[in-house]
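ok trying this again, last paste got cut off
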Amino acid sequence: MPTDPPTVPHLLVAGRPVAAVEVAATRRARGRGLLGRAGLEGAIVLPGVRSVHTIGMHFAIDVAWLDQDNTVLRVRTMRPGRVSRIVGRARWVLEAEAGAFVAWGLVPGVNAEVG
């Protein structure tokens, strides 16, 4: 009996799928984030994160902070070499290449989830 291929999680913005997403589930994966990469297809989720940095990165990223209800609290584009402020109500962070959030309609107040 053939097995189903592994399912790749997707980012849903206002209920519609917009991109493949990778979840940095371990502390080590969250600490590494996008460091050392030349780019990113889709997005990366950093659970339990309230601030990020782009020190050592090679490209600008869009960053969204989301609360426990998966509502986008804040969105920012960060160039390499920057450190964000802590967003106290955030329960997870979403990162993608700069410009992706505009294309996906990811703005404060919108619901976004991984499905």
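PB: full thing came through this time. The first helix runs from residue 27 to 32.
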